[in-house]
Design goal:
about 325 residues; alpha+beta; Helix Hairpins; SH3 type barrels; Alpha-Beta Plaits; five-stranded antiparallel beta sheet; three-stranded antiparallel beta sheet; 12 strands; about 15% strand
Length: about 325
């Protein structure tokens, strides 16, 4: 029994010896590799430090001066850019320019000047941005093509804010759409239709067509066409219509309203009735005058005829009497 234990112990020792013999060279190799890596890193660091030392000795003073100058250029330039943008904003506000355009111009002025300041500061320390600017220009061109529709709306919005073809609250017709202007944005114009539907129209369509502004002027003319029978006295009809117009205080005296025979139609003698009113009273007066003229004509024994046609029937070449 003791002999077997002794043999097993000897075998274990032999296995440990074999393992140590095989592992020690590997460990030694790894240690050597790590030592070489450390030495390489130390040498690289020393080279970097030597390069920095040489740079500081030869060009350090000049670089420090350029760095301080670049910092001063950035700080002072940023302050000037902000100051100039604020001056531009105040000048436009005093000129009663729309606030949306004032804000846009202020931001564009500030960031444009700041870009030049940054370029100048980087150039002072020897960083050239010629290639970067060329790349940015190409990228901006590609973006411009991709956003062509939005950019056209943007440009149209700027023109609208500058030239002011209408303002918020005006009743207009733009791009074939009628409505009251609710908002004038950089890309879109928001309208409310007469039946209270919110309509958003791209600004490029607004400026690309005819714009009709019904509330831009203080006064408007109402155009009515009133017909009376051929059997009626047209002088009396004219007097009745003029009396209706004179009785309405909302109708302006200057320019005077026009009442005149305009057409001898198939079934009636037509008058044009053209009173002038304030723009805010247009539709109220339009509806009231239309109703009052009809009632006044009827109360004075005058008639507004409806279209009619006499038909003569012939039988066997003979004209039949009317009513048969």
């Amino acid at each position: 029994m003791k002999l077997q234990i002794k043999k097993i112990s000897i075998c274990c020792l032999a296995i440990w010896a074999i393992l140590l013999v095989s592992v020690i060279p590997v460990v030694a190799q790894d240690v050597n590799s790590a030592q070489n890596a450390v030495e390489t890193a130390i040498a690289g660091s020393q080279n970097i430090l030597a390069t920095i030392k040489d740079f500081l000795i030869t060009k350090g003073t000049a670089f420090a001066i350029d760095l301080v100058a670049a910092i001063l250029i950035f700080v002072i330039g940023r302050w000037l850019a902000k100051w100039i943008s604020i001056l531009a904003s105040r000048a436009m506000t005093r000129a009663h320019v729309e606030q949306i355009l004032v804000t846009f111009v202020q931001h564009m002025c500030y960031f444009g000047l700041l870009a030049f300041v940054i370029i100048a500061a980087l150039d002072r320390v020897g960083i050239k941005l010629t290639a970067a600017i060329a790349v940015l220009g190409a990228a901006a061109l590609a973006v411009a093509f991709a956003l062509q529709g939005s950019l056209s709306n943007f440009a149209a919005g700027i023109l609208m804010v500058i030239f002011k073809p209408f303002k918020v609250g005006d009743f207009v017709t733009v791009a074939g759409i009628q409505g009251t202007v609710q908002e004038i944005e950089i890309l879109n114009t928001v309208l409310n239709s007469p039946d209270n539907v919110r309509i958003i129209v791209p600004n490029s369509q607004v400026t690309g067509g005819t714009i009709s502004n019904f509330t831009a002027n203080a006064t408007r003319r109402i155009d009515l066409k009133i017909g009376v029978s051929y059997n009626d006295d047209i002088k009396k009809a004219k007097q009745v219509i003029e009396g209706v117009l004179a009785a309405d205080a909302r109708i302006l005296k200057t320019p005077p309203p026009t009442v005149a025979v305009s057409e001898l139609a198939d079934s009636s003698v037509n008058f044009v009735v053209r009173p002038w009113v304030k723009s805010a009273d247009y539709w109220d007066v339009y509806f009231d005058i239309t109703a009052k003229v009809k009632l006044a004509l009827e109360s004075n024994g005058l008639t507004i005829p409806f279209p009619q046609r006499d038909v003569n029937i012939r039988s066997g070449g003979q004209k039949l009497p009317a009513g048969t």
